Amino acid sequence: MVQLSTFIIEVCLSLTVSILTLLLLKSALQAVLLDLCQGEQRAEFWGRFTQLMLIIGPLLGVLLFIQDASYAEAINTAVFRETLKHALMGGFFTLCGVAFIIWRTIPATDITSQSTSAKHLSPANNKARS
Fold first, then answer.
1. Could you say which of 14, 57, 84, 96 has the lowest number of CB atoms within 10 Å?
2. Confidence of residue 19 (pLDDT cuts 50, 70, 90)
3. What total number of domains does the chain contain?
4. Structure-derived torsion over alpha carbons of residues 74, 76, 79, 83, reported in degrees to the nearest 10
5. What range defines the domain where residue 80 resides?
């Protein structure tokens, strides 16, 4: 019975990490996806994909690295520490993967056009024109 209780606590801790991460990212991620995907349906797909990955990643980290030796006679803090470590590692690697995908889709800006437009907008050039 202790093993089942410990397993349920580990899964709940993993899901808590995932849900907190999702709550922190949801509005900002949606805005970025709408801008990058140039369509609401595409942004919705990638938003849901990211949400699923942020739930599956930490949970998978906990389930893959679960240790049978940690199921002692009583539930101790080492079990929770290991579970939290694995859930955070899963979340971290999932976020890195999603961030890499988003970073690769951001179009590169032309440096010369930025410097040209910056010259037109600078206050020194506006004074010289007056």
1. 96
2. very high
3. 1
4. 120
5. 2-129
